[in-house]
Design goal:
InterPro entries: HATPase_C_sf, HATPase_dom, His_kinase_dom, Sensor_HK_TwoCompSys, Sig_transdc_His_kin-like_C, Sig_transdc_His_kin_sub3_dim/P, Sig_transdc_His_kinase_ChrS. The chain has helices at residues 11-38, 45-60, 71-90, 98-108, 111-132, 139-221, 226-252, 257-260, 264-275, 291-312, 352-362, and strands at residues 279-283, 317-323, 327-334, 366-371, 377-384. The chain is of the alpha+beta class. α6 runs antiparallel to α7 (226-252) and α10 runs antiparallel to α11.
């Protein structure tokens, strides 16, 4: 078991070390005082005083040589034990200084070496107690020192193992926290990539696709109908201008350009419908919507109209924004060629519809698609209003099937 270095000690270990140091010097001082009181100055007294001073000085060097079982630490401990043994042989009163030495040996040496040192120290304590009894027999003289040594060793080993388990647990917690932080960073990166991919698909990619179609149309009609060709070019120029605004928004991470111009979601949808020659209507009493909801609904409308323009072959389409008591619903209907949801589960076509569904789900809402081949398509996005719980999710309003003519008059 690897024990922490002096600078790595936890507060409890450092506190225990200070207690043991204080106890050692108290026992050493008490033992010297007892000897001097019981034995007035004798021939061995100078040796006892000198060895006591030497033992105190050596013990003070303990923190300097560290706590690991390095060669200098073992040499220091061996010297301390040798000086203590000399003291015990000359004056048995110093025997109980062995208790702090138990702790020092157990903390410094490997398990087997530490147990050997504890056994040696205990033997000398028994020897000292017998000497102090002056030949009188007392079972406690034989039993008490090993019992004290066993208790001290058991407490230390238990505490050391508990500290090791605690350090392992803390290391595991730190490692787990770092792994969770790394996972969160990766998930954040993936989420941001997904967000940017949806933003680019719903704005720049669709705008570039529209420009391509308009420029191709202008090229086909340039010789026969220059006015129509120029009109296509001007429309492509307008789309390019809006794409430039969107690109700048990406750099500054602002709201959608239509929303940033002011007027809120209704004005943004009305402007989008006008550019796409699409009918637009608002039902219900308008309520303030969070910016995230406005942005999501506008992006869904842009994506749906782009799909209609590129894939549906529709003669007309319509947007309806409906405010209900507990949700806001956006319906996009077209009279195009439609498709079979059974053949295309969930109505998934390309990247656009999955991106719209993700936008709705991120706000606790739903996206439903109803379509029949030859009868058009209705897409409905329902987002719960902030003042109402988002679970369970409220059902969306069933959309009406689109007629052959534009189903709504533009407001």
């Amino acid at each position: 078991m690897t024990r922490p270095t002096e600078t790595e000690q936890d507060p409890d270990t450092a506190w225990l070390a200070r207690v043991m140091h204080i106890a050692f010097f108290l026992l050493l001082g008490a033992s010297l005082a007892r000897f001097l009181l019981r034995h007035p100055w004798e021939d061995r007294s100078p040796w006892i005083v000198a060895l006591s001073g030497a033992l105190a000085s050596l013990y003070l060097l303990g923190p300097v040589v560290g706590t690991r079982a390095a060669p200098r630490r073992i040499a220091w401990l061996s010297t301390v034990v040798a000086v203590w043994i000399l003291l015990v042989v000359l004056a048995p009163s110093f025997a109980w200084c062995a208790v702090p030495l138990f702790y020092t040996g157990l903390r410094t040496l490997p398990a087997r070496a530490a147990l050997g040192l504890v056994t040696l120290l205990t033997a000398f304590v028994v020897f000292a107690q017998v000497q102090l009894a002056h030949g009188g027999w007392d079972p406690n003289l034989i039993v008490a020192p090993p019992a004290v040594a066993a208790i001290a060793t058991g407490v230390f080993v238990y505490s050391d193992r508990q500290a090791a388990r605690q350090r392992a647990l803390i290391d595991d917690l730190i490692r787990t926290r770092r792994e969770l932080a790394a996972i969160e960073r990766r998930e954040g990166t993936l989420a941001e990539r997904q967000r940017l991919s949806m933003e680019i698909h719903d704005t720049l990619a669709q705008g570039l696709s529209s420009q391509q179609m308009l420029l191709q149309a202008a090229d086909r009609t340039w010789d026969g109908d220059p006015d129509t060709a120029r009109r296509h070019v001007r429309t492509a120029e307008s789309i390019a201008e809006r794409n430039l605004a969107e690109a700048r928004r990406f750099v500054h991470d602002l709201a959608p350009a239509d929303l940033a111009e002011g007027g809120g979601l209704e004005e943004a949808l009305r402007g989008l419908a006008a550019r796409e020659s699409t009918a637009f209507r608002v039902d219900g009493s308008a309520v303030p919507l969070p910016e995230r909801v406005q942005s999501a609904l506008l992006r869904i409308a842009q994506g749906a109209l782009a799909n209609i323009r590129e894939h549906a072959g529709a003669d007309s389409a319509a947007l309806t924004l409906t405010y209900l008591d507990d949700q806001v619903v956006l319906d996009i209907a077209d009279d195009g060629r439609g498709f079979d949801p059974v053949d295309r589960p969930g109505g998934v076509r390309g990247h656009g519809l999955p991106a719209m569904r993700v936008r709705a789900q991120q706000l606790g809402g739903t996206l439903t698609v109803e379509s029949t081949p030859g009868e058009g398509t209705v897409l409905s996005a329902a987002i719960p209003l902030p003042s109402t719980p988002t679970h369970p999710r409220p059902p969306s309003v069933p959309p009406a099937h689109p007629p052959s003519n534009p189903p709504f008059q533009e407001s």
